[in-house]
Amino acid sequence: MPISQARVPTAEASRYLKQLCRHWSHKFPVEATEAAGRVPFGEDRVCTFEAEADALVMQVATPDPAALTRLENVVSDHLLRFAFRENLGEITWSRAA
Question: What pTM does this model have?
């Protein structure tokens, strides 16, 4: 399954992780702690979050490469909206083989 990952430098990683997971918990069976989160967007689409001291690490996976791009954009857009007070810059995703 194609996987993509982004590491976003921020001191507020845990806060953003919780905010993103809480946002999607109304539609999906989300799992979240202070340090990690998992959002199953569907049977074959998932996003995981890991809060580090200086960054939020996000990983998305889905079997369809076009859907992977859409999922990257959805997650990035939501993070940027929630982090409007902080300039996170451009979020760069790296594809894993």
Answer: 0.92
